[in-house]
Design goal:
Elements: E1 5-7, H1 9-15, E2 24-26, E3 32-33, E4 39-41, H2 44-67, H3 70-78, H4 93-109, H5 113-128, H6 138-141, H7 165-183, H8 187-202, H9 219-230, H10 233-244, H11 272-289, H12 292-309, H13 340-357, H14 360-374, E5 392-394, H15 407-415, E6 424-427, E7 430-433, E8 439-445, E9 448-456, E10 463-471, E11 475-481, E12 496-498, E13 506-510, E14 513-514, E15 523-529, E16 535-540, E17 544-549, E18 559-564, E19 567-572, E20 583-585, E21 592-596, E22 603-615, E23 621-632, E24 643-645, E25 648-649, E26 668-671, E27 698-699, E28 707-728, E29 741-747, E30 753-755, E31 770-787, E32 795-801
Parallel strand pairs: 7-11
Antiparallel strand pairs: 1-2, 3-6, 4-8, 5-24, 6-7, 8-9, 9-10, 10-16, 11-15, 12-17, 13-14, 13-16, 17-18, 18-19, 18-25, 19-23, 19-24, 20-22, 21-22, 22-23, 26-28, 27-32, 28-31, 28-32, 29-30, 29-31
């Protein structure tokens, strides 16, 4: 790749532009970002999201850092003791760093002395925990003799596994640079530099150094950014060292993308967040060093993701086993992991590939992820979060105000405020318009100021107006992205395709005159001498579209998804008075778009006619007509727990008729641990094998080693003699294992729980039917009692009683 000179604006899209105006660094991306500080959002859709981030998400995250002991960890590290019990997770420090990063972005657009003072008070605590040589890792420092169980006996011993020392460094640097650029203060930046210097001294090929690479990547991105801010090349060399040594140390597994050297990789494997952070770091280092082998590797991996491993929502990471990419075309829906952090990482990678190649296809993926699989991870009010983002649910998924592993909420803190920086970019005399939202922007074309304003109701309609409010640059080319969905391409591969035969059109007018141009890499280019008052009007046809997945995607065979513009839709229980999981779509559906400004902060619903399939009391299959209402996927799970579906059956063999009522499903269920997924044990769905994650299950996590129970209270006294249990066990990654032991009890005439007289033993095969036949008893209630393993919980797919 040709080495080019650009300013630190290369990274200021994310980190702001204050320092970027003071220095330049060589060998960056061919395309310059326009920093988020130059873009003022006036948009109702994204304005609401930014307001929620400012008023709810970031204050909530700070309060949770206090409440959950994140700050206390630093206080204890400042006064270490052999008696301190080190708990939590080894990367809890990063939640503090990430929240400060997000808050620092806010300070650049919404100055707030009170917030700035609060951050300084936190940084006082952080600074006190730093060791004299710069090392800062509270999970070790608070009790060096008995550190966190993931930390190892000495520094860096387990950094390729679980200690996360380099991961903590990465987020510290990212947060410190954001804070420095927001405030001009060096208090956090100096902390980060001292820790980075410690790592540079101790990690490497030289004498008295050890060779280690990050177990969880992000330090590569951060160190490249630190080089840009400081001009000290050792940080860039350290980032490249981490990349170049990957696959050559003792850790050589797919989970951490260490199965082969990075330049030889051609498939997205392992932990999806780690992977995308590494790919983004490779792009950064490639841009700064000119190492084209990195770029070729990322290009191959991107082709694999977009062609075989991308959800229609833009989510990535199919499986909870290792929070990882699955096999090619492995895209289950109910068990889709699609971690919110992975969606953010997917945006990072596609953005950097755009900066490298200037092709709109990367923004097509970025936009799909942004409007669907990313913002689905945070509630509309900014106060509830998803860790995974599944594409199907039976009520077992709810947004949470925080998690023990809080990487997703704190990542949302730092991403949402940076969003305005993704709208525009500049290369030479070319201005790229990549995203569509109402805003005012001030940018520079070859050093000359240009002011534009964009007005639109996107994503609800496809009309965009771009006004030239000031132009000191004379002639330049405005490059307007024409989204793939307008060009009849769902994603830049054959993974998904439209099946409705529609041919949407687009138009571009300048001052009322229609323009014609050949698209270049997905952009409509208008090259002219612009004057104040010039107006560009863009129109995209925006109709509901039917999407089919490649037939190799087993989970989506016989199903269609509905999208309109960049928005993927879903069917959810509050909008439909029938079971949305038993839907059968019409073969030639007609859609009605209905604006509903009072629902979910204002949405467009889609309505269409469909059928449900269900069994009557005689076991006959019955079809019923219904009006099906669809809402944007990002807005689901705001109104309580229940069924949700993205991929809707349009072939009979893909349907799931409502099950015939059973004794279990007609019973009143109770349990020692009243989890939201309790109803899943009576839904009639059984696993196809021990690794099936496509159906819901109930679990007792996080309980361990205790005796737990579930009971059925029948509508009337019944004679029972058989019970079947399907155990859920998500070894080796999850927290559930088959139980240590279990028993069946019935309630006798005196109301006491009595063990059934067991004839054939209690089985604990996971995923298989564990059948117990016993002497018939007449009873009003039955109880399943479970003794959990000492260090794990247990779970159940289904419990049948006959």
């Amino acid at each position: 790749m040709k080495k080019l000179m650009i300013s630190v604006l290369l990274f200021s899209m994310i980190t702001g532009g204050a320092y970027a105006q003071k220095r330049t660094v060589a060998h960056g991306y061919p395309i310059d970002p326009v920093p988020f500080t130059s873009v003022k959002i006036t948009d109702s859709f994204w304005g609401q999201r930014l307001k929620a981030s400012r008023e709810m998400t970031i204050p909530l995250a700070f309060s949770k850092c206090e409440e959950t002991g994140r700050y206390r960890n630093f206080e204890m590290a400042a006064h270490p003791s052999d008696t301190i019990k080190v708990g939590g997770l080894s990367f809890d420090d990063t939640d503090v760093y990430k929240t400060i990063e997000g808050a620092s972005y806010l300070l650049q657009t919404y100055p707030d002395k009170k917030l700035e003072k609060y951050i300084d008070s936190v940084l006082t605590i952080v600074a006190a925990a730093q060791e004299p040589d710069g090392y800062l890792y509270t999970s070790r420092t608070m009790n060096p003799k008995h550190p966190h169980e993931w930390a190892g006996s000495k520094r860096w011993e387990k950094v390729e596994e679980l200690s996360h020392e380099f991961y903590n460094l990465g987020h510290m640097i990212e947060g410190a640079i954001a804070h420095y650029q927001a405030t001009g203060k060096r208090n956090f930046l100096d902390i980060a530099i001292r820790y980075a210097d410690c790592v540079c001294r101790e990690i490497g090929d030289g004498p008295n150094q050890v060779v280690r690479v990050p177990g969880h990547q992000i330090a590569e991105m951060a160190l490249a950014k630190l080089y840009l801010v400081t001009g000290d090349e050792k940080y860039l060399k350290q980032a490249k060292f981490f990349l170049d040594k990957r696959g050559y140390t003792s850790r050589r597994d797919e989970y951490s993308q260490a199965h082969k050297p990075v330049i030889e990789q051609d498939e997205a494997v392992g932990h999806a967040v780690r992977a995308t952070y590494m790919y983004a770091g490779m792009a950064d280092v490639a841009a700064l060093t000119g190492d084209t082998s990195y770029v070729h590797a990322i290009d191959r991996i991107w082709d694999n993701i977009v062609g075989k491993k991308l959800y229609i929502t833009g989510g990535i990471g199919a499986t909870s086993n290792g929070e990882a990419f699955g096999a090619n075309y492995e895209l289950p829906n109910m068990s889709a992991y699609c971690e919110t952090c992975a969606a953010i990482g997917n945006v990072y990678v596609n953005y950097r590939l755009f900066l490298l190649h200037g092709d709109a296809k990367y923004y097509d993926v970025l936009e799909r992820t942004l409007y669907n699989g990313l913002i689905s991870g945070v509630s509309l009010d900014g106060g509830g979060f998803f860790y995974p983002n599944p594409l199907q649910s039976m009520g077992q998924h709810q947004r949470q105000p925080w998690f023990g592993c809080a990487c997703c909420p704190s990542n949302i803190c730092r991403f949402i405020p940076s969003l305005p920086g993704y709208v525009y970019a500049v290369k030479d005399r070319n201005v790229y318009v990549n995203l569509f939202m109402s805003n005012n922007v001030t940018l520079k074309v070859e050093g000359k100021k240009v002011e534009l304003s964009q007005t639109t109701s996107y994503p609800w309609n496809g009309d965009i107006t771009i006004n030239v409010d000031r132009n000191s640059a004379g002639q330049f080319a405005m490059k307007v992205r024409i989204p793939g969905w307008v060009q009849n391409q769902v994603v830049p591969s054959d993974l998904y395709m439209y099946t409705d035969g529609l041919r949407p059109k687009y138009s571009v007018k300048v001052n009322g005159e229609e323009m014609n141009a050949e698209l270049q890499h997905g952009y409509f280019t208008i090259d002219r001498k612009w004057k104040k008052g010039d107006r560009v009007e863009v129109h995209f046809d925006m109709e509901p579209r039917m999407v089919k997945a490649n037939n190799k995607v087993e989970a989506d065979r016989g199903r269609i998804a509905i999208e309109r513009g960049p928005i993927v839709y879903c069917a959810e229980w509050p909008d439909n008075d029938f079971d949305v999981l038993s839907i059968l779509m019409n073969r030639t559906p007609k859609f009605e778009v209905v604006s509903n400004p009072d629902l979910l902060y204002g949405i467009n619903e889609i309505k269409t006619q469909a059928q449900t399939l269900e069994y009557d009391n005689n076991g006959r299959l019955v079809a019923k007509d219904h009006t099906l209402t669809l809402i944007p996927y990002y807005a689901w799970a705001h109104r309580g727990s229940g069924n949700m579906e993205v991929w809707l059956p349009y072939e009979v063999n893909a349907t799931r008729p409502t099950a015939i009522p059973t004794l279990a499903s007609k019973s009143k269920i109770d349990a020692s641990h009243k989890g939201s997924s309790l109803s899943s044990i009576t839904d009639g769905l059984v696993p196809k094998d021990e690794n099936d994650r496509t159906i819901p299950y109930y679990h007792w996590w996080p309980k361990e080693g205790t005796t737990e129970w579930i009971s059925y209270e029948f509508p009337e006294k019944m004679t029972i003699s058989n019970s079947t249990v399907y155990w859920f066990d998500d070894a080796p990654w999850g927290g559930c294992r088959v139980p240590k032991s279990w028993k069946i009890y019935y309630k006798n005439a005196s109301g006491d729980w009595t063990p059934v007289q067991n004839l054939n033993g209690y089985g604990v095969k996971k995923g298989d039917p564990n059948i117990v036949d016993f002497e018939p008893v007449k009873t009003k209630a039955v109880k399943l009692e479970v003794v959990l393993p000492e260090k794990n919980a247990s779970g159940i797919f289904e419990w049948e009683v006959k």
